[in-house]
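Reading a protein record of the kind used here takes only a little practice. Think of the row as the fold of the chain written in a discrete alphabet. With that in mind, consider the following protein and its fold in token form:
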Amino acid sequence: MEYITVKGESKSQIIIKKSKFITHLKYVENKEEARKYIEIIRKKYFDAKHNCYAYIVKEDNGLYEKYSDDAEPSGTAGMPILNVLKQKKLYNVVAIVTRYFGGILLGTGGLVRAYSDSVVEAINNANMAKIILGMRIIVILEYQQFQKFKHYCDKNSINVLEIQYGERIRAIIEIEEYKVENTLEMLKNNNIEYKMEKNVKIQKEI
């Protein structure tokens, strides 16, 4: 499972016929994170006329999409936001567009363009990342094994998250799914103790 998403958060602001459109775009792990972020933005811009949103999230048990026009005319805000996320083939992303009404009506077509353009602008401002399914592994090493292990990780671009020094060395690594088999073979061949911890999603900036 691989997909493209945004790295961290992104923001944009455009003004169309005196209406201000502020867009927040954020990577989320699941739909609950998306909902919490929407509430944060709603509270921040409590005085705005509209806080419209959409999110699309891949979880282990399925794909989830949701959108809201937040009192804009039906189909002019939430769906256009979601459509941009789909067109850009982004997943695990929530986009919230806050509108401060400027006193000039934009019409349905104008609203669709405004909300779509707002999200496109935020995406253009964002750093992008590829999400790759991986594995977190705890490795227990004797001190004389460490240099060989470290060299293997450096050579194979394996992320060492943590190193603890005690009677033995305890390291935590994160590796992409396609590297797991060779890495486990290396550990076994060198009599290095390890424990498979959990599946993880690894972000690679692109």
